[in-house]
Amino acid sequence: MGLPQGWLSLPLLLLLTSIPTKASLEIDYIPALTRKPLEGIITSSTFTLDQPSGQFNSPNISDTDDIWLVVAFSNAVQNFTAPQSFQCIPHASTFLEKKYYLTIQASRVLYSNETNAQDIRILRVGNETNCTVNMCNTPLPGPGPYK
User: Fold this and answer.
1) Contact predicate 99/146, CB 8 Å
2) pTM
3) Residue 84, Cβ neighbours under 10 Å: how many?
4) pLDDT averaged over 10-residue windows placed end to end, the chain, 147 residues
5) Cβ neighbours of residue 146 under 8 Å, at least 6 residues apart?
6) How far apart are CA 92 and CA 75, in angstroms?
């Protein structure tokens, strides 16, 4: 079964940021839909990416830096600017207004190269249905296309 045309327009953007210092760094990495044999890789409100294992080994990246996945409508990528403070982070609740948001906050420790052969290392975008905070990975509002 093939993937729906136009649903997800890659590349997505991973943003590495240390917001308190007002610095950010986009890394040269293109997230990809997982090719693992899983059900529901793409649904009407979610998609599943491979984790960016081993992508954050640069000496310019600290263990304390936040790593965010930026999800955007394809036509909104050019409008994205990295937030300058934690309060300015666009979350899923502002997605329809801003056309992009940051989700799945992590640190590089979670994305090390070390994996167990039995680990399924994926990022499921749009997976949290019972969100009560701004920093939520809420279901996507429709079929996209997303970048």
Assistant:
1) no
2) 0.74
3) 13
4) 44 47 65 85 87 82 83 82 82 86 82 66 85 80 81
5) 7, 8, 9, 12, 47, 71, 72, 73, 74, 140
6) 17
Distance between CA atoms of 16 and 105, rounded to whole angstroms? 10
Residues with Cβ within 8 Å of residue 18, at least 6 apart in sequence: 24, 62, 64, 65, 66
Over the stretch 37-79, which tens digit does the pLDDT of each residue have? 888 888 888 888 888 888 888 888 888 888 888 888 888 877 7
- The residue assigned the tokens 């984790």 is 51
CA torsion 30-121-33-102 (nearest 10°) is -60
Backbone angles phi, psi at 61, to 5 degrees: -110, 130
Phi, psi of 62 (to 5 degrees): -100, 155
Cα–Cα distance measured from residue 145 to residue 147, given in angstroms and rounded to the nearest whole number: 7
DSSP summary character for residue 75: G
Q: CB under 8 Å to 48, separation ≥6 — which residues?
A: 33, 34, 38, 40, 41, 42, 122, 123, 124, 125
Pair 24, 15: CB distance under 8 Å: yes
